[in-house]
Amino acid sequence: AGKITRDNFVRQLRQVAGDKPIVAAIRFAQSK
Question: Number of helices (H) and strands (E), helices first, in the chain?
Fold first, then answer.
């Protein structure tokens, strides 16, 4: 391990953020 893929990073953020606005921001950033 050691290298964090973008998918894993986003997945972790979603788990931490739960249903907060940051999830929407992450999805917006991914759609670019």
Answer: 2, 0
For tokens 């990073």, name the residue: 9
pLDDT tens by residue, 1-32: 567 788 888 788 777 766 567 777 777 888 76
CB-based burial of residue 13 (10 Å sphere; 0-12 exposed, 13-18 middle, 19+ buried)? middle
Per the document, the length of the chain is: 32
State the Cα–Cα distance between residues 1 and 30, nearest whole angstrom. Answer: 23
Q: Which residue bears the tokens 């739960």?
A: 18
Indicate the number of domains in the chain: 1
Classified as helix, coil or strand, 13 is: helix
